């Protein structure tokens, strides 16, 4: 009986994580919607605007799980504290767009 209860508890915990407002699924939705509307977003923007602590992982998932065509360009950007960093800026390319993005 204990194993059954442990299994139910684990299933419940997984469901809570999946349905959590900051689950990886929800993070991907936010990133994809922003890229679709604005065309691009940087690592810093995703961390601070969307509460996505691992932007590269979400981009990888969008590319490989959802088939999004996203190009990465390295740029210099300042964090909210004003410090400069070399970060990725991700550009969502439209279907049939064969050109690369220039910065």
Gist of the model:
With 103 residues, this protein is an alpha+beta fold. Helix content is 50%, strand content 20%. α2 crosses α4.
Helix content: 40-55%
Major beta sheet, strand line-up: 1-3-2
Please report the number of helical segments.
4
Total strands: the figure is 3
Principal-axes geometry comes out as globular
Strand content: 15-25%
Q: Rounded to an integer, what's the Rg over CA atoms?
A: 17 Å
What are the key terms here?
globular, alpha+beta, 3 strands, 3-stranded antiparallel β-sheet
Give an account of the 3D structure.
This protein has a domain at 39-97. The model has no long low-confidence stretch (mean pLDDT 83). The chain has a three-stranded antiparallel beta sheet. It is α+β, with helices and mostly antiparallel strands and 103 residues long. Helix 2 crosses helix 4. 50% of the residues lie in helices and 20% in strands. The chain is built from four helices and three strands. It has helices at residues 2-19, 24-38, 43-49, 55-66, and strands at residues 40-42, 70-78, 84-92.
Chart the SSEs and their pairings.
Blueprint: H1 2-19, H2 24-38, E1 40-42, H3 43-49, H4 55-66, E2 70-78, E3 84-92
Antiparallel strand pairs: 1-3, 2-3
Helix pairs in contact: 2-4
């Amino acid at each position: 009986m204990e194993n059954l209860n442990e299994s139910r508890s684990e299933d419940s915990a997984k469901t809570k994580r999946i349905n959590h407002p900051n689950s990886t699924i929800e993070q991907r939705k936010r990133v994809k919607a922003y890229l679709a509307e604005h065309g691009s977003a940087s690592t810093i923007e995703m961390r601070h605007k969307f509460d996505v602590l691992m932007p590269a992982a979400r981009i990888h998932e969008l590319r490989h799980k959802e088939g999004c065509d996203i190009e990465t360009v390295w740029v210099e950007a300042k964090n909210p504290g004003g410090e400069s960093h070399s970060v990725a800026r991700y550009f969502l390319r439209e279907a049939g767009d064969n050109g690369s993005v220039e910065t």
